[in-house]
Write a structure and sequence with these properties.
Chain lengths: 113, 113
């Protein structure tokens, strides 16, 4: 069975600070990796995804993530956060014959103006 | 184009009553998923439909939960004899193909009193 760990439960940053949110998964086979974001009062939206190819993927709003297969990681980064990035961020994975997403527990990001 | 829609947006019910939650996927999407988001359990997979294949029910927490998808489009999640622990946000997602990106609806917030 797959599992996803997000080690940071709550991150507080000031505007313009750099962001890195950790995500590790456990699954031995080929995986598809996702970051979703949930802004306050809104539904889950896709930030970025990795299926294959270049392990550095770029998403919306200046976010990027790097797939490091040897570390089973897919960390999310942004060089300079904005107050509007305040949201909950979820890492998720699908793998093998499983089509459903397995989510991490989420990281609440608060950006102070 | 139109995204995934869900109804009702909020539902308050009494313990022991049955509830039905509806999901309209994105037109043309063959795969449809139900998830549950609750404070204690995070985001959990419930059930997955793909075309005319038998659904993957492996995430349903008890036999009080069932779902159907009529005509390969609209889906209904039914919870019988609701319990307080069923209180959660029920999310529907759809994807163009089984291994594709899942797009989420706004969810139905269920409160069981």
């Amino acid at each position: 069975a797959q599992s996803v760990s997000q080690h940071n439960h709550h991150v507080i940053l000031s505007e313009a600070a750099s962001l890195e949110l950790g995500c590790n998964y456990s699954y031995g086979g080929t995986v598809n990796l996702f970051w979703y974001v949930q802004y306050p009062g809104q539904h889950l939206q896709l930030l970025l995804k990795y299926f294959s190819g270049d392990p550095l993927v770029k998403g919306i709003k200046g976010f990027e993530a790097e797939f490091i297969k040897s570390k089973f990681s897919f960390n999310l980064r942004k060089p300079s956060v904005q107050w509007s990035d305040t949201a909950e961020y979820f890492c998720a994975v699908t793998g093998g014959s499983a089509r459903q997403l397995t989510f991490g527990s989420g990281t609440q990001l608060t950006v102070l103006p | 184009g139109a995204g995934v829609s869900q109804s009702p947006s909020n539902k308050v019910t009494e313990k022991g009553k049955d509830v039905e939650l509806r999901c309209d996927p994105i037109s043309g999407h063959t795969a449809l998923y139900w998830y549950r988001q609750s404070l204690g359990q995070g985001l959990e997979f419930l059930i997955y439909f793909q075309g005319n294949s038998a659904p993957d029910k492996s995430g349903l927490p008890s036999d009080r939960f069932s779902a159907e998808r009529t005509g390969g489009s609209v889906s209904t999640l039914t919870i019988q004899r609701t319990q307080q622990e069923d209180s959660a946000v029920y999310l529907c997602a759809s994807s163009l193909k089984p291994e594709g990106t899942q797009y989420f609806g706004p969810g139905t917030r269920l409160l069981v009193l």
